[in-house]
Design a protein that fits this description.
Elements lengths: L2 E4 L21 E11 L2 E15 L5 E12 L10 E5 L8 H6 L4 E3 L13 E3 L9 E6 L7 E2 L12 H18 L7 E6 L1 H16 L6 E5 L10 H6 L2 H10 L5 H4 L3 H22 L5 H15 L3 H6 L6 H7 L7 E2 L7 E2 L13 H21 L24 H11 L4 E7 L7 H11 L9 E6 L9 H17 L11
């Protein structure tokens, strides 16, 4: 990557040891120039890395939110140029995952299936969406280099479902104003808990700051406050389990011979038509029907009929991760069940650790630290928080799914895209589909809810084939959510 660097303002450095308190400038930036190739086309772009303040009601800066903003050069009129606002989830994780793994112009060096390679580092991302949209990656407070400025500031104003949405809606509005992007088509993309954040922000931006979006992109969606336990949540994981069992060749031979996408519709139909109603009956389910359901659930999950019956027809995901390959001495990953772990003992109900997360942390953490300092010239002695201290987190009054539905209903331009990996056991794909159905129970807006599935897990983009396809799917979605000039907003 060729770089021409112009430093406007360096963030504060500390004198002395790394253990000393590092001062934080809440309003600062560093600008660098770069060139790359995306989909065979030479692209020049500007990267801006820095802090923008969070203010209290008296306009006092109380926190610094760190961000990286990529703009394609040579765009004379940005009124038609899409702006994508990107963040990850946790809550409490920084934006490095999608920045270096998915949509940004720099790409983590990993193998084609997503496993770490050494030496760690980055390379050009030939699939980045920077050719069609500018992107800003946001690190919420206490993630990445973002920090609360005063130790006496009440942490509760940042760390909760609605608290997080409130201050970030204001921050995003200020960013749009500073960058002169009010005329641009605007999109949010959030991953994992970031889908909760994006869903709430869609309505908060629209109703409180009058920022109307063209699109919301949900990557590995959470339940968005639409359901909390019960038969539905227990049943909906079965299609994910079937996908995982198929991947590890743990299904019966007749199922194993089929392609994954031929099996899943069959499992989904069973889940909605038979499995969910059976779980709703609970202890009142007749014994013969219980045995029939257990046999089918075992067939699709790859577990024994006894294991299903021992858990009263419900299959806890933690048990599934431990049980599926127990006889082979392996566990399967939580966020991506293609990954296998090895426990200290084969006995027990749950895995000792998440095999996929250890792998990802090993490759992403050194890469983001090197990239920001050496490629983007952002120098600071702050520790980059991959996972930051944001607990306790206030989860009360989570109505983000309802908020997203309100935003869609009130804004006829707004479309929603869900991207899911079939092997994600934390934010399973079928739960995401189900949430779409529940948000729009009247079926009036289904043409504005789109779903794309991939043969990978939570971070589907770490598999090279899915990285390419998912970015193409984003391009298509971004373009589809921009109406032709002069087309009125109406239903």
């Amino acid at each position: 990557m060729k770089r021409i660097i112009k430093v406007l303002c360096l963030c504060a450095l500390v004198a002395g040891s790394l253990s000393a308190q590092v001062s934080v400038n809440p309003d600062t930036l560093v600008v660098t120039k770069h060139q790359t190739t995306i989909k065979g086309q030479a692209i020049s772009y500007t990267a801006t890395t820095g802090n923008q303040p969070v203010w209290d009601d008296n306009r006092k800066a109380i926190a610094a939110v760190n961000y990286t903003y990529y703009e394609r050069d040579g765009i004379k009129d940005r009124s038609a140029r899409p702006l994508v606002v990107s963040f990850n989830g946790g809550p409490g994780t920084s934006s490095l995952w999608m920045q270096l793994g998915f949509t940004g112009p720099a790409l983590l060096k990993i193998d084609s299936e997503g496993y770490p390679v050494m030496p760690y580092g980055t390379e050009n991302n030939p699939y980045s969406i920077l050719d069609v949209a500018d992107i800003v990656y946001i690190n919420p407070v206490n993630t990445g280099y973002s920090r609360i400025l005063d130790k006496d500031t009440d942490r509760k104003i940042f760390f909760g479902v609605n608290e997080d949405i409130k201050y970030l809606a204001s921050w995003i509005t200020t960013f749009i104003t500073r960058q002169n992007r009010w005329e641009s088509p605007k999109y949010l993309i959030g991953e994992s808990y970031g889908t909760t954040r994006a869903s709430g922000l869609a309505q908060a931006l629209q109703s409180t700051h009058w920022v109307f979006l063209n699109g919301v992109i949900l990557v590995s969606a959470t339940d968005l406050g639409l359901q909390r336990g019960g038969p539905a949540r227990e049943a909906l994981t079965l299609p994910y389990m079937a996908a995982t069992a198929w991947y590890h060749k743990a299904l019966a031979s007749d199922l194993q011979q089929k392609d994954l996408l031929d099996i899943l519709p069959e499992v989904e139909k069973f889940t909605v038509d038979e499995y969910l109603p059976a779980l709703a009956w609970g202890g009142a389910l007749p014994a013969d029907k219980r045995k029939e359901i257990a046999k089918k659930a075992a067939r699709y999950s790859g577990l024994s009929e006894k294991a299903v019956l021992d858990h009263n027809l419900t299959i806890p995901t933690r048990f599934f991760w431990k049980e599926l390959l127990r006889d082979k001495g392996f566990t399967v990953g939580r966020l991506d069940s293609r990954y296998k772990g090895i426990d200290n003992q084969d006995g027990g109900e749950v895995p000792d650790y998440n095999a996929e997360m250890v792998s990802w942390e090993q490759s992403f953490t050194p890469a983001i630290n090197h990239y920001l300092r050496n490629e983007l010239n952002y120098k600071t002695d702050l520790e980059y928080y991959v996972f930051g201290p944001v607990r306790p987190w206030n989860n009360e009054n989570n109505h983000t799914g309802e908020d997203l539905m309100k935003a869609v209903a009130q804004n006829p331009y707004l479309k929603v895209l869900l991207l899911s990996g079939y092997y994600d056991g934390a934010c399973d794909y079928f739960n995401g589909k189900y949430n779409f159905w529940q948000m729009d129970k009247g079926g009036k807006f289904q043409d504005r809810f789109l779903f794309k599935g991939y043969r990978s897990g939570h971070m589907m983009y770490i598999r090279n084939e899915d990285l390419k396809q998912a970015n193409d799917d984003l391009r298509d979605f971004i373009k589809s959510a921009i109406p032709a000039t002069g087309v009125p907003a109406k239903y």
